[in-house]
């Protein structure tokens, strides 16, 4: 594979057809040759930030495989570019591709804080943890520019409402001040995602995420401030990072994580095609082996939509991963417990009084 064939700094190496669109976009050879001669780019390379204006922001999670009741996403699409990300398929609902579009066309919900406040002021709403990043990372690079996540955290604190965060970006430490205030009231739980201890693997799987060192530092600093952290060692990809599970669990425990979770990788919808294309370009020698191992975890297919099975996997390979996880919990987390967040304060602050920010 030549350097020209690989898009450095991106996970997906191409766009795939959006299943909801009738028309198919393709680049013809004569057009590519014209661009080469003229010294022009065949497509826009830089990330675009596109404002959208949803009517609501809090989503009820109906999947029994996901450990949350409600989620919200300040951004759609994610510049982190993780090749395995299940959220890629959601970009098709917006008329874009799950491939490069997902990483380069980031939809910005500037009104998210106002929508959240409107939701929390509903008389019918009863407090239940709302998780930031149920779909795409709330601390992806766009947050440095727009600070929507920060503003949403201020709303959660204003109403003393419990909130969870899922991220793989050390930028979360920029909000340590408000996280500490939320934690004083037992209103915050943080999930830091770490999929490998190898920077080489991290750069291939998750090209625009924070380094492993910075993520471990984030776990350590949050834990030192008594902010509860769960490490998401997900997804486990047989043949790529599954052999690291024990060492990963030991490392995050030593840095202060109170618990860990994991999933077995699944490649639903367009992700199967994107992942297969990616692995043949990045790991050609082991591509077929890895794809077959993934298929062994999902009844012979990459595309597994079965509730109760799709994130756990099945078969010998998946069982080996689960056995390692059971061992890791006994060895490194036996005396630790992730606390339950409080919901009883919300009713007292529902009028929006006593805002300190």
Automatic annotation (TrEMBL):
Keywords: Iron, Iron-sulfur, Metal-binding. Transmembrane segments: none annotated. Residues 68-296 form the Elp3/MiaA/NifB-like radical SAM core domain. Signal peptide: none annotated. NCBIfam families: rSAM_PA0069. PANTHER family: SLR0285 PROTEIN. This is PA0069 family radical SAM protein. It comes from Croceivirga thetidis.
């Amino acid at each position: 594979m030549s350097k020209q064939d690989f898009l450095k700094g991106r996970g997906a190496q191409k766009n795939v057809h959006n299943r909801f669109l009738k028309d198919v976009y393709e680049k013809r050879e004569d057009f590519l040759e014209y661009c080469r001669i003229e010294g022009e780019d065949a497509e826009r390379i830089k990330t675009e930030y596109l404002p959208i204006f949803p009517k609501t922001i809090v989503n009820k999670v109906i999947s029994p495989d996901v450990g949350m009741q409600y989620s919200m996403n300040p951004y759609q699409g994610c510049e982190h570019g993780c090749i395995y990300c299940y959220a890629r398929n959601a970009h098709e609902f917006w008329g874009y591709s799950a491939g490069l579009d997902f990483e380069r066309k980031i939809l910005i919900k500037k009104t998210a804080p106002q929508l959240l406040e409107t939701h929390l002021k509903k008389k019918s709403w009863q407090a239940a943890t709302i998780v930031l990043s149920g779909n795409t990372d709330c601390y992806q690079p766009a947050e440095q520019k727009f600070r929507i996540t920060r503003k949403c955290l201020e709303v959660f604190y204003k109403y003393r409402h419990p909130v969870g965060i899922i991220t793989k970006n050390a930028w979360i430490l920029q909000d340590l001040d408000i996280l500490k205030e939320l934690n004083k009231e037992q209103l915050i739980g943080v999930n830091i995602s770490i999929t490998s201890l190898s920077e080489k693997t991290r750069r291939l799987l998750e090209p625009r995420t924070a380094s492993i060192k910075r993520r471990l530092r984030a776990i350590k600093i949050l834990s030192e401030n008594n902010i509860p952290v769960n490490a998401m060692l997900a997804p486990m990809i047989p043949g790529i990072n599954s052999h690291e599970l024990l060492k990963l669990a030991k490392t995050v425990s030593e840095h202060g994580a109170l618990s860990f979770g994991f999933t077995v990788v699944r490649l639903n919808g367009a992700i199967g095609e994107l992942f297969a294309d990616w692995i043949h370009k990045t790991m050609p020698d082991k591509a077929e082996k890895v794809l077959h191992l993934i298929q062994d975890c999902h009844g012979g297919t990459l595309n597994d939509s079965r509730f109760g099975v799709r994130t756990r996997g099945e078969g010998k390979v998946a069982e080996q991963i689960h056995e390692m996880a059971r061992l890791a919990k006994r060895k490194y987390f036996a005396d630790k417990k992730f606390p339950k967040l409080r919901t009883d304060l919300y009713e007292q602050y529902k009028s929006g009084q006593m805002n300190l920010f």
